[in-house]
Amino acid sequence: MKKQIAFLFVLVLLTVLPLTVSADGPKASETGSPAATEGPADNLVVRQHSAVIQGKKLDYTTVTGTMVVDTAGGQCEIFFTAYTLDATEDLSSRPLTFAFNGGPGSSSEWMHMGFLGPRRVSTDQNGKIQQYPVPIVDNEYSILDLTDLVFIDPVGTGYSHPADGVDSAEFLGYENDIRSVGDFIRLYVNRNNRWSSPKYLAGESYGTMRAIGLCKYLSDTYSMGLNGLLMVSSINDFSVIMEGEAPSDLAYALYLPTYAADAWYHERLEESYQTMQLEDLLEEVRAFAGGDYMSALFRGRSLGAEEKNEIAARLAAYTGLKAEDYVKANLRLNYRDFCVSLLEDQNLVIGRLDGRYTGPLTSGDIADGSSDPSDAALDNAFGTAVSQYITEELDYHTDLAYVPISLEVNYSWDLPVDELSGFRQEQTIHEQISKNRFLKVWVLGGYYDLATPVGMVEWVYNHVFLNDGYDNNLQFSFYPSGHMIYLHEPSLAAFREQAEAWYTTAVTVP
What we know:
Order of helices and strands: EEEEHEEEEHEHEHHHHHHEEHHHHEHEH
Structural class: alpha/beta
Strand content: 15-25%
CATH architecture of the largest domain: 3-Layer(aba) Sandwich
CATH superfamily of the largest domain: Alpha/Beta hydrolase fold, catalytic domain
Oligomer: single chain
Radius of gyration: 23 Å
CATH class of the largest domain: Alpha Beta
Helix content: 25-40%
Number of domains: 2
Largest sheet: 10 strands, mixed
Shape: globular
């Protein structure tokens, strides 16, 4: 089954050029990794850098380039950027985090230069670009002082590509992707003597689905247990996500808290709700969504007109829309209609990835990103910045275009299920935590995110039925931000403070 799931991330596609890479700088033999005598070889650049993080100057080493990975599907060259702290004496006490974005078909540029890396794209407190080309600055909220970092671009993104003569299909799709990324992780750990280090995965959006799959693959294939999963804007069950029309009534209830949050942010609610704290409002909306609203949806056509009007009135009060709109939609309003309708009287549409953003109403589609103001505002800025950074600061040179996100990859993606059943990971999450009592899962989300709404995230993990005594293996943090939670600086600062405690507790017995 081939399933288009581009809705999960930014959708601007740069031209995918012929995928071969050559770079100036040290080769594999200069960095301690064995160089191949035939076929492709590792092509790595090693440089020394420093940055100010949490008020302290840190010296670190970067390794940038492509590593040749042999998988069951054939050879590929995976592009990565690794950051290791120079003052580390004991690697067994130094955590190592592998990070990636989602898409599928997205490079790691957002996690790398927006969130976790020691250098980031400069934005204002609300994630908006102030000049173009955008400056690159020290990331005072980076977690490099807490963990070494390796940012991975899956095959078909960044500069990663199949070896000559190898079919790209061998690396696309859920299972093939996990195999190639997992084999890269094993190879990196082995070559860099990191088996004794606490190991983590950090994924965003579809990357959280990859993280769960990798957790199982690394354990089953290489006996590599992990200490933690950092799950940003998590999507682990396609049966409750709105792609086009909702697959079930449940989706409408799960999206409602985000509708309410977006309406509250834009001050579209009546005074009694508008003056509430956001968390207090959402607590009330959650109760309604799982109670009276879900009951009304379940009854369908048998719901009486009076009851239908009562439910519609409450929906309107929580979302800033008109009750008659809900009546006409049989109480089932999808996110496209909500994004267009909320500020329609101002001729504005709100963002799907981040409801804080607004833009003019156009003929584009919120779902594919063509009229999502929270998407278009940032794509070019980050795309330019990552090419600038890799070339000018990390000193990796190639004539190829860096591929931030590939629709070709996205449209070719396979999921191991049929169209009707969806793809669900609740059981896999349960199994991995049950088998590894040290595995801590930290789920992060933004209140204004309609791509992976908080109601859906909460529902999925509430249906991971953990064994007694394992509740502390799960932690949740939700922020007043969108899909890219780090594009709201106060949220980024809050994450950074919480990360210090999480990286400490994720190596202890629950």
